[in-house]
Amino acid sequence: MADFNSMRLTAAGYRLRAAAEIGQTLQITRIGLGAGDAPDDISGLTALVDERQSAEVETFEARDDGTGLIRFYLSNAELARGYPFKEIGVYALDPDTGEELLIDYTNAGSHYDTIPAGGGSTVVEQVIDLITIISPTDNITAQLTSHRGLPPGGNPGDVLTISVHNTMSWAPAKGGGTDDLVALLALTTADVKNKTRALQQESRLSPLDQALYLVLNAD
């Protein structure tokens, strides 16, 4: 994994944080991932230098110490072209103009990884937590619109498993193992609606099953 420095507020981030402290709502919208090199002064950035992917916010937690935990899901499944993964940025809406602005930024510099294009032999699926400096206020929200899609494939009778490394995959049913945290019957190869409906109808949901249910039905 790339070695990123701590998140740093941009000038827009400082401005929107100050607005949140006096009562306006700061709404975090998404996470940007890019391949650009950081400028000497990141304060003037309103967008990533070279954005290549966008990720939705899966969970957001504002903490009493003025930091926030933002969780997002990184996948190369739909990526047409690989890129050097150097940049991560947090975007939020300007409450006055409605414009989406970059408020928090980090760059791995030369300590980056390469995200390969999807469809090849290397599958990238990872849940990433960001710790961002926001503000000790209740006026910070996030658009929790993430809807992690089911992986392609799956034959009738297969189960969907999530490993301890947060990787989802279809596999023939078996007796169960320590890495198989959740399972879902695959009704057909490509019928995602039916696969999701099977989860809704499952009568023996464990807490981890319930967590997957919430992810698959976020909208």
Radius of gyration: 19 Å
H/E element sequence: EHEEEEEEEEEEEEHH
Look at the structure and give the mean pLDDT. Answer: 74
Shape: globular
Number of helices: 3
State which percent range the strand residues make up.
25-35%
Low-confidence spans: pLDDT under 50, at least 5 residues?
175-206
Helix/strand class? alpha+beta
Question: How far from one another are the termini?
Answer: 30 Å
- Helix fraction bin: 10-25%
Tell me about the biggest sheet? 6 strands, mixed
Q: What is the tally of beta strands?
A: 13
Oligomer: single chain
Supply the number of structural domains. 2
Quick tags:
219 residues, alpha+beta, three-stranded antiparallel sheet, 3 helices
Structure description:
There is one protein chain. With 219 residues, the protein is α+β, with helices and mostly antiparallel strands. The protein folds into two domains: 8-142, no CATH class; 158-216, no CATH class. Strands 1, 2, 3, 7, 8 and 11 form a six-stranded mixed beta sheet that branches. A three-stranded antiparallel beta sheet has the order 4-5-10, with no helix packed on it. Mean pLDDT is 74; it is low at 175-206. The chain has helices at 11-21, 192-201, 207-216, and strands at 8-9, 26-34, 51-55, 57-62, 67-75, 83-85, 87-93, 100-107, 113-115, 125-133, 140-142, 158-162, 168-172.
